[in-house]
Each structure stands twice: as structure tokens, then as C-alpha cells.
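Check this.
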Amino acid sequence: MKSSMDCIPCFVRQATDAVSMTVSGDEERKRLMRNVLEWMSDIDLETSPPAAVQMIHRRLRGLLPTIDPYRVAKDRQNNLAARLIPSIRKRIVESFDPLTMAVRYAIIGNIIDLGAKNNLGLGDIYAELQSAPMQPIFGDLETFRHAVAGAGTILYLADNAGEIFFDRLLIEQLQGPKITIVVRGKPVINDATREDALAAKLEDIAEIIDNGSDAPGTLLDDCSEDFRRRFEEAELIIAKGQGNFETLSDISRNVFFLFRTKCPVISRHSGYAVGTYVAAHGIVGGNQSQRRGLS
């Protein structure tokens, strides 16, 4: 997926957030943001949004006092998710269809994304949680169910901190196949790293690896050789979040995308309306009749 002119305001906002979280002086903040605005001219809109964000944040981290500007925010998201998980797990286990309910909650977890929205509040999260049992899922849920049942190995590409606790709830329903959960190789925005996977105690139910990259998505050419081998060998890949969709939607592999459409750019590319819960198999170039969320 290529970047759009509409992506540029988000690139600037994400950089502004990183500066504001780590630098207190107004003049220093202005100096750093002038650099960011200069870097914007280097963005290649033919590349995916995560590739552009990677370039900006690589440069920015070299000027900031920390390599993980969002660490405090990520810890806060993890702590919130940890408090919510026991009651949500109970709802899933007691539901008529635990797998479908776990998919719903995994997608709800995808709203915990400071890359797409920096003013996310508790009210947003609680409202989504309350509506979860009633949310329709668009795409290929039955195909997903059959694919999970038939897979011997699953590669689960995580997205954000906080959200990764909700991923655990889905992974608990996938027990049977050998599951490997993949996090980012280095910090970028609020994307999950090994530290966040360990906070969710995912090592108890799956192998944890990182992809060797600091992109907020899965840029295969930038990932480690070990990850690329596992990607090719996996019988089923579950890719969470918009960043993984933006970087893998044109890849010919057995990939299921789980995400909530959060912006018009993703809506146009995927064919699903903003706000739609999506569980779709290789969306781009797929069956138009399955894109029922677009109004």
C-alpha cells in the first residue's frame, strides 16, 4: 500500500507527540519540529506509511533523550489492559462462540493506537468494550475459523502495546497449532516490543520473537533473516492492526488481517468503512462482495 497526501498530517502529529513526551523546553521542541518538517520533503509517497514513519522516527530518536519516547504511554496502556483482561476473558469463555468473541475483543484492542489517535481516553475504550458483543465482523470469519483449525503453525504479528493483552485472549482460543507471536525489533511509536509481550505473559502460551525491524508494520526487506524464514514457512499468518495491513496487503501469502478501520486512507484501500471491524483474508484484489462495511 502506498502512502497518501492525507497521511502527512498524521506523520507530523506522531512526531509532535514523541517530542512533547520527552522534551520539556519550548524552544527545543520548536527546533526539533523544524527538523521534522524538513524531513517531510524526503518522504517517498510511493512507499507505505510505515516506511515513511520509520524514516522520520529513526532520525528523531537520534535527537531525543530516549530511544523509546512512548515508553511511559505504553506502560500506562499495558496497565489498563491488564486490569480489563480478567473480566473480558470471563465474557469470552461464557459466550456461545468463544472464538468469534475473542476475535471481536482482539479487534477492539486495536483502538489502543497512539499512531492513529493521540487523544484516546478511557471513555473510548469502555464504550467499545460495552458494544463488543453486538459488533459485526466483516470479511471472512468462517474462512478464518477453518484456517485456524487446519493450521499446524501460526505466525501472529502483534501491533501495539496494551492491545497485545487482547491478542493474548485470542491466542488462548487458538491452542492446538504451534503459535509464534512477533513484535517489533526496536521501539517505534507505541508498537509492541518484547517488553510488552512479556508484560502480557505471552511466553506462557506462545514463542515470542521480534522481526528485527523498527518500522510500525512489517517491511519484509527490513526484517531479520530468521523472521523472513518463519514468515515463508508459517501455514497461517495473523496480522493485527493497520500498520501490518499497510505493509502486507499486497503480499501473496496466507494472511488474515484483523483490524479496525481508523481513517479514510485505510477505508479507501481496504474497501471497508471507517470504524468497521475487519477479519479478512488477503483483502486487496479479493472478492468485492465481502467488503460489506463500506457505506
The first strand starts at residue 137 and ends at 139. The two ends are 22 Å apart (CA to CA). The mean pLDDT is 90. Residues 270 and 283 are 6 Å apart (CA to CA).
